[in-house]
Structures are given as C-alpha cells and as structure tokens.
Amino acid sequence: MNIQPAQIADFNARLEADHRECYAFLKLQLDKKGINADELVEKIQDFQVAIPSWALGAGGTRFGRFSIGGEPGNLEQKIQDIGILHTLTHSAGAISLHIPWDIPKDAKAIQELAASHDIVFDAVNSNTFQDQQNQPFSYKFGSLCHTDKAVREQAIQHNIEVIEHGKALGSKSITIWLSDGASFPGQLNFRKALQRTLDSLQNIYQYLPNDWKLFIEYKPYEPNFYSTVIQDWGTSHLLATECGEKAYCLVDLGHHLPNTNIEQIVSTLIWRNKLGGFHFNDSKYGDDDLTVGSIRPYQLFLIFNELVEGMSETSNVKSQVNNFAWMIDASHNVKDPLEDLMQSLEAIRLAYAQALLVDRNTLAEAQETNDVARVQEILQDAYRTDVRPLLREARWRNGAALEPIELFRKLEIRNLLIQERGFKTVATGL
Ligand SMILES: [Mn+2]
Asked: Separation of 316 CA from ligand 1 center, angstroms?
C-alpha cells in the first residue's frame, strides 16, 4: 500500500489557500521580532524522528490488549507502515529495531526496502528483559548484573549479536535498557550488582565499532518494584563515563519519578557531553507511554528549550543536535497506532519549533540580571505562539500532507491495511 504523490498534491491543493494565509500572517509577526520564518522551516524540515519497530501495532497492558486490525505481522510490513508515516509527514525517516523481535532474515533486502521509503536505521535495541526460545539460561534474576557469570556471558553475547545485526543494516548505535533489579529488600547486593553491570557493559563496549555509540537507558522502577540497577541518570552517567567516550546516557521521558525536573537533567548531560538521545512519550503517573505532548506539552517545550540552548551560539557547550538520537517510545492501546504516532511526531516538532523561537540573547540577559518575570514572559511568549503553520510549510516543501491525519482518514488507509493483512493480526512487540 503506497500513497501516490498525486493523492497528496490533490489533497493539499484544497488546503493551500488557507495555509498560505496562516503562514504569511505568522511570517509577518516573526519578522517584527527579527526571526526569519523560512530559516525555521528549514530546520524543522531536517528534524527526523525514529519510529520503533515495536510500536506499530496495538499495545497492551497486563490486563489486556485490543487489536486494531491490519497490524504489521513482519518487519517488511512494519517498514511499509513507517513508509506511510514518512510519506504523510516527512518526519519519520528512521526505524529503530528491536532484536530479537525483528531480526531481518535478509539484511540487504530489508535495507533496500527501507531505502525505497527513504528510511534509515537508527539505534538497535537489545532485549535481556525476557527469556528467548532455546536460550540456556534465564534472566529471571537479571542479565548483565546476574550473580552467575554464565548468564552474564549469555547477555553480553546477545548484545554483541545485536551490534552485528545493526552493522549489516547501517545502524550506528545500540540502546541497552535493563530490567535488572530487585523486587525485595536484601535480594541484591547493590554494589556487587552495579559492579557486575559495569563489567558486562565494558565487555560489550569492546565490541562497539569506532563510529558507533552505546546508549545506556535508565529507569527507576518496573518490572522490579524495589530497586533497579540503572535507576537514574546519575547511574547511567557513571556507567557511560566508565565505559568511555562512545557511551552516552539515554533519556526516556517516562523513566522518571513523578515531578522530576527532566529539563535540568538534559541540561546537565549536554554540559558533560553525555546526552545520547531521547525516547519520547508522555505520562500522567509513571511509565505510561502515552502520546507525546498529550499530558504535559509545556514540559516538552522546556526540555527542547534546554536542547536548543545547548546547541545555540550563546551556549558554551554547543552540542550538536543532529548527533542526538530521537525516537518515539510509546504504546498505543486505544488509538490507531499510525494516527497516534503522527500526533507524537507533530508534538515533538511543535516543541522544537517553539524552542527555536526563544530569543536566546534576551533570555540570557534576563537570567544574568535575575529578571525573573521577564524570563517567564520570554519562555511563555514562545510557547504560546501558534507555530503550526511552520510545520505545515515544512511538510508542504517536502511534498508531505498539510494535514497528515486528515489525509490518512480520507484515504481510508487503515481499512486498506485490514483488507491487505486481515483483522486478526498481531504485531511483535510490547
Ligand atoms: Mn525507552
């Protein structure tokens, strides 16, 4: 199922006059502030977010899962779905693979299929939080931290295999998230567990190609409810630092205790050149994996404000945004996954565009003179600007749909996918 350029052009033609009017108005307003709208549009055009191979089907909770129909049943179909997203939005130009759920049978053919949709391979993800068929040892009591060396060896070997799969596809990074931890006090010797995890990570790091990065993801709790070995950014930072300069921290927005100041963590990691990338999602309570920007869009904006600050001219760190790995890590339990992902893509780019509007020099000046009210005015002026015309213009210039979800519905893509794949389909993943 491929969307034809003519279908997008026909759809856009009906919306063009309205869009031109909105864009011209915003451009004029921004001009008055000395901001060049066309330059912002170019930056937004370049901003691509990876879609994880496990998030294209309906997700579930431990209580149940409700099929959406037409879900992708194999890696080829997942790439086709990301192709649909990318065609409609031109902002999903990468896929992040989960091994072993999505091991390519023929790496070259998969690479060609992805290339035909203009999709590259982002970070590969290992999995030692579940036991796999035919594996001799169980991860019930941990993987890289396990008390038994043989279990640790098995987990290290799995990560090396994941790197090999990634190399064949053109990936340049691996993300490691461990569920290792303890459900009860006394179950683990904290120090020994952390030491063993470090040893295992250093072992994996040795196999990392020179142009690769290792991302270490942290999470405070779940599935273990008493302690997690890599519980927070500090632990991740410690491990990444001990591993070496190719190792970085990965921030998953849902992996924090309630009310954690994530933007402050981002700022610190950029300063230390240890921010590797992001897993975007949103949450009300814990690791809810909801649509990005659906609950706390202002927090998302504040995070992007730190990211843009970190790479701006006024900053003394000048981190390079294009080197960060951006990925959505959400679960779609009630919405159509493709519509949900388009909403997430939109929210991420909106926050980025709003952060680009912040007048860095004036903000720095207000901060230096402790003009607290002024600081809030500057931030909220940017946040409350309707930047949607910039995103539409970026899509227009890239030949994507002015209103992606509207076109997705108009073309009845979900129905076509159901006709093609059937209703009772299950995608591998969470
Ligand atoms: Mn994650």
From this structure: 29
